[in-house]
Each structure stands twice: as C-alpha cells, then as structure tokens.
C-alpha cells in the first residue's frame, strides 16, 4: 500500500527518517492519505519499506507530536481529522 506511495532512497544523503516523514506529510497534505484514514502499523510499514521498525516508530512519534496523526488505543494510528479543520500545528 504505502510502499507504492513512499519511495525512499537508501543511498541518499537525506536520512531514512526524514525521507519517510517528508513523504507521509506530503501524502497527508495533498489528500493521498485522507483525514481519519488508518495507517499501517510500524511493523507492517517497516517491512514494506525495508527499513528498521525503530525508524518508522521515530517517524510516527514525530508526526504524533506535530499533530499530523493520532493514536487510538487498541485501534491503531490514523491521519488526524484536525487537518480538515486547520488546527494542526496551532496552539
């Protein structure tokens, strides 16, 4: 799924975390990942992208902190619905 939308270059000067974060944010902002849609688990995404799970965990944590995604207990990670209301990144 996301591996087709997120192309990373393992030999790039840009870190894997940065590449994955940038691609996810771009996808969210252009609507490729709609508000409220579920993202794959860290294990699944890491396997799809052929990167360490820790890399994906760190990316997801950054996106959680920035408000792009939300974690729903016992359900998974979802694109924040606050994006539609223009509240991401605002106090």
Describe it.
The structure is a single chain. By secondary structure, this protein is mostly helical. Helix content is 45%, strand content 11%. Strands 1-3-2 form a 3-stranded antiparallel sheet. A hairpin with a 3-residue loop joins strand 2 and strand 3 (76-79). Helix 2 crosses helix 4 and helix 3 packs across helix 4. The termini are far apart. InterPro entries: HTH_trans_reg/aminotransferase, Tscrpt_reg_HTH_GntR, WH-like_DNA-bd_sf, WH_DNA-bd_sf. Keywords: DNA-binding, Pyridoxal phosphate, Transcription, Transcription regulation. Pfam families: GntR (PF00392). This is GntR family transcriptional regulator. Residues 14-82 form the HTH gntR-type domain.
Provide a compact summary of the structure:
The protein is mainly α and 91 residues long. The protein contains 4 helices and 3 strands. This is GntR family transcriptional regulator.
